[in-house]
Amino acid sequence: MATCLVSNEPAINAMVAISTDVEGPIEVPHDVAEIVLVRHGETTWNNSGRIQGSLESELNEAGWKQAAAISDRLAKELKPTAIYSSELKRAKNTAEMIAKKCHLPEVIEVPELKERHVGSLQGLYWSEIQEKEPEAYLAFFSSQRDLEIPGGGESFDQLCERSVTALQEIASKHKGERVIVVTHGGVLRAIYMSVTGESSAGKVLNASINVLHLSEKKWAFKSWSDVSHLNEVGFLQRGFNGDSFQN
Questions:
Q1: What is the pTM of this model?
Q2: pLDDT band at 238, cuts 50/70/90?
Q3: Domain spans, the chain
Q4: Per the residue annotation, which of 77, 112, 115, 161 is the catalytic one?
Q5: Known catalytic membership, residue 40
Q6: Model confidence over 29-70: pLDDT tens digits?
Q7: Residues comprising the binding site for substrate?
């Protein structure tokens, strides 16, 4: 399995938004693709502590409000030229609201941006997985990155490789432009760890904004886990215990 490390840039603090300035468009350098990575809005399963993985689940009332808030924010910033999304409904619905507000004609689905398949853990509650699926539980929390999760699940390396490859392909089409990518907590975690070389991404919150600059020479995060636009609508503070509980 090929390594997922794509940059030697120093890591940024994953627990704090690096930039919260939402006013005034800033031009993207001609040799850089600016990708605004967005985690989908909150779902009923997020709220109840149930594992989604690659299964479908619906945005709840809070999730729709978060999608509206992030749409309002992105519409005030530098206009994106395209929006891409995971094919899963929770991401697609978030992306469609953003697209409408930003006057983008379509949401481009990218299957490789979907959430990690976590095997026999999918559909269970986090509180019960250690007892009901001990092998899958150990595989999920293992530091062995090439270990696949029993029940048809992906390894972390597999998730990482498809996520990074998808971003590379998107970036190659949008040099000098800003584009939006709506995806999932596990995917964002994999991308962050690949770019920074860190062993943790901290909490990847629902409807957070994470800005990544991609060029042929380097990848660098300009902001991470920015939820300043959610101050009025609120969000799940726990993030399901940081890295361990994302989907």
A1: 0.88
A2: low
A3: 33-233
A4: 115
A5: yes
A6: 889 999 999 999 999 999 999 999 999 999 999 999 999 999
A7: 39-46, 90
